[in-house]
Known about the structure:
Elements: H1 2-15, E1 18-19, E2 29-30, H2 34-40, H3 43-76, H4 79-94, H5 97-108, H6 115-118, H7 135-163, H8 167-175, H9 180-191, H10 193-208, H11 212-217, H12 227-237, H13 241-266, H14 270-273
Antiparallel strand pairs: 1-2
Amino acid sequence: MLAVTLYPILQALYDSLFRYRLTAPGDREMVWFGNYAVILGDSVFWSALLVTVVITVITVLIELVLGFALALVMHRALTQLRGLLRTAILVPYGIITVVSAFAWFYMFDITSGFVNSWFSWVPGIDADLNWFASQGTSLFVIIASEVWKTTPFISLLLLAGLAQVSGDLEEAAAVDGASWWQRLWRVVIPNMKAAIMVAVLFRALDAFRIFDNVFIMTNGANGTEVLSLLAYRTSIGRLEIGMGSAISVLLFLCVILICFIAIKLFKVDLSSARGGS
């Protein structure tokens, strides 16, 4: 872990302090936090950050709701059907992200896609609709592809949390006259808060680092550039290692901030959740 994780982070942090281009390796110059000042003063960075946050928030919220619904179905299903349901739900998650992104791209493409013809009865959709010509529709396709692929991951994590909720608690609440909705909000969800936090945290971290879908579908066009793609363009496209490293460090700090917010928001005692002292 130290070799493949900590070292690249430290190397990126070190490189971010230099004005360093691969096309002119001899002109490497220490600028300390100059790269960060340039990035934070650039509207392109803040636009990419906003798009990344929007994608992260929307996908995590939708996946949490759909994942919880799927987890309830699998949890309540007959024993004979549980294996079949879990296998069917896991199919999208088992597909490689690049393959999934290309599939969604060709589905919505104006020339090769079938979405426009199949859903022409929906208001606003016709044969001439180019989904990747504007920011709103492009983000819709990107978010939809993310939700389709990663909701199974959320559902399995929440299913594990549902398995930890004592059936006696639900039966006691039912005896006291609690409705199904009341049992869900006052018994089930509070007792699986640790699983919900883990699901939200893992998925939010993954969604915030989204790259494949955006790169394949729009390549950052029409206001869809995200932080990962911006770092890639800067480091690989323009060969500005110092500036690209600085963007990567800022992305890493945003990930740390997400972890902090999630832990403070859910206020879960993980030691007690796993049965520790």
